[in-house]
């Protein structure tokens, strides 16, 4: 058995593997890029194949049983400890309630509009209101392990962010406390007030620089290369491991049958789509799922380097080039040079070898379709962010192109809570988008409060007359009829 008591006995042997030159490095050091070639890493458990000694039914039953556990270390993303980071000890696991976010089916009206059945997986219901908490739970658990093992007295965590990463990093750093401190670097004026408030509220040092996310990322990379800091962007391979839990949860929710399932994921820094492909590949490798779901990455026309790469049909002719971004309502995806692109390429090649042609695709959508995707979803009872709107726009485009059939079920990634991006909704309703967004509000999507009685009436009428007049105005506006 792999479990003794509640917590697993299994401990893997993990190594950093460079996707550029193949060099391997010990995990007892914090690495973000390869010292030899500057390539990005994936983390590999060199004893992973030993898990195949147990049949798929064993793993399915084990993960299902853990769904009811009271053991804190197994309640979050580490429910899948053996598949995630099996070198982490129970005492080091950080759990703030992340993971196991709900899958909510589109209602009949929305399903009819889109033309196919689909679900939103609401990752905005994570602790800091975004999917980033999955990766941070893993990254901070391993960092806590290193702090304990090395008796470090001070560790500064840093990240570049358009909002969600900084909120999550600051939250987890505040919870772990002790020697761990948090600093975040943001593009000045490019983060919503709601997202800026989060790291400030968690007590992080918040530093702003002019430019966009890519500029912030260069600063953070310089710091990580030259100073002793813990980088928490998706270059951190431990974060990618934590985000694989999204795939594990989808499989578990679907009773480990992902046949004729499509998963739509927005591509920003490309860490999440990397993790989701990696997670499904692990499940397939152990036979826990019999077939891979199809993966659709979605990018805006305003930040589309991955789409441009895969739009070239012949693989040998593809050339990756960063792009200059223009403003996007899918703010977290407004990245012109995603650091995890080499991981996307690595896992997409594996994915297509097993899943066949069409098992991994990238779709490009307009800003108009993204914002209206969010508004359409939320008018039908969801809590989608703009990135979730991007996914709905991607699904609708895929249906139009004949890439998704009515007999398939799609799962859309709503990466954050819509309240983080409420400013964009307000800009749509008030027609105040700057021209560079290329968005023109349509009346059928606009909503605004209506005043039914004047301030002068409130001041001049008696309380009883005010109530009666206000109520009558509501009756007239809503077309109410009396009880008969």
Automatic annotation (TrEMBL):
It comes from the Bacteria. The keyword Oxidoreductase does not apply. Transmembrane segments: none annotated. Its EC number is 4.2.3.1. InterPro entries: Ser/Thr_Dehydratase (IPR050147), Ser/Thr_deHydtase_PyrdxlP-BS (IPR000634), Thr_synthase-like (IPR004450), TrpB-like_PALP (IPR001926), TrpB-like_PALP_sf (IPR036052). It is an enzyme of class 4 (lyase). Its cofactor is pyridoxal 5'-phosphate. GO terms for biological process: isoleucine biosynthetic process; L-serine catabolic process; L-threonine catabolic process; threonine biosynthetic process. It catalyses: O-phospho-L-homoserine + H2O = L-threonine + phosphate. SUPFAM superfamilies: Tryptophan synthase beta subunit-like PLP-dependent enzymes. Belongs to the threonine synthase family. This is Threonine synthase. It comes from Desulfolutivibrio sulfodismutans. The lineage of its organism: Bacteria, Pseudomonadati, Thermodesulfobacteriota, Desulfovibrionia, Desulfovibrionales.
């Amino acid at each position: 058995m792999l479990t003794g008591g509640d917590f697993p006995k299994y401990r893997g042997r993990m190594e950093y593997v460079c996707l550029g030159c193949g060099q391997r490095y010990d995990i007892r050091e914090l690495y973000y890029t390869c010292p030899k070639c500057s390539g990005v890493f994936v983390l590999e458990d060199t004893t992973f194949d030993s898990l195949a000694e147990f049949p798929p039914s064993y793993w399915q039953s084990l993960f299902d049983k853990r769904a009811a556990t009271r053991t804190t270390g197994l309640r979050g993303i580490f429910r899948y400890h053996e598949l995630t980071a099996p070198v982490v000890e129970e005492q080091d696991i950080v759990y703030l309630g992340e993971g196991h976010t709900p899958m909510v089916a589109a209602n009949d009206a929305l399903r009819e509009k889109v033309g196919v059945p689909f679900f939103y997986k609401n990752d905005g219901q994570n602790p800091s209101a975004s999917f980033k908490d999955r990766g941070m739970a893993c990254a901070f658990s391993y960092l806590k392990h290193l702090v304990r093992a090395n008796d470090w007295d001070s560790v500064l965590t840093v990240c570049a962010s358009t909002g969600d990463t900084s909120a999550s990093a600051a939250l987890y750093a505040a919870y772990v406390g002790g020697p761990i401190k948090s600093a975040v670097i943001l593009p000045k004026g490019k983060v919503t007030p709601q997202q800026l408030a989060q790291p400030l509220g968690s007590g992080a040092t918040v530093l702003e620089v002019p430019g966009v996310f890519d500029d912030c990322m260069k600063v953070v990379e310089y710091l990580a290369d030259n100073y002793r800091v813990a980088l928490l962007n998706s270059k951190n391979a431990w974060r990618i491991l934590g985000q694989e839990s999204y795939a594990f949860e989808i499989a578990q929710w679907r009773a480990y049958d992902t046949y004729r399932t499509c998963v739509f994921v927005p591509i920003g820094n490309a860490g999440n789509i990397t993790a989701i492909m990696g997670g499904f590949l692990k499940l397939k490798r152990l036979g826990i799922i019999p077939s891979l779901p199809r993966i659709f990455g979605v990018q805006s026309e305003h930040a589309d380097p991955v789409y441009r790469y895969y739009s070239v049909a012949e693989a040998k002719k593809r050339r990756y080039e960063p792009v200059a971004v223009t403003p996007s309502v899918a703010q977290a995806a407004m990245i012109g040079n995603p650091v995890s692109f080499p991981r996307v390429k690595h896992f997409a090649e594996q994915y297509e070898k097993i899943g066949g042609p069409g098992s991994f695709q990238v779709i490009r959508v307009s800003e108009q379709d993204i914002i209206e995707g969010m508004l359409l979803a939320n008018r039908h009872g969801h809590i989608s962010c703009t990135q979730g709107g991007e996914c709905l726009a991607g699904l609708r485009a895929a249906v139009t192109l004949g890439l998704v059939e009515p007999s398939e079920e799609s799962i859309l990634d709503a990466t954050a809570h819509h309240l983080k991006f409420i400013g964009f909704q307000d800009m749509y309703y008030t027609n105040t988008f700057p021209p560079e967004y290329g968005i023109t509000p349509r009346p059928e999507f606009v909503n605004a409060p209506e005043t039914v009685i004047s301030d002068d009436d409130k001041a001049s009428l008696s309380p009883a007359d005010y109530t009666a007049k206000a109520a009558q105005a509501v009756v007239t506006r809503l077309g109410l009829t009396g009880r008969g």
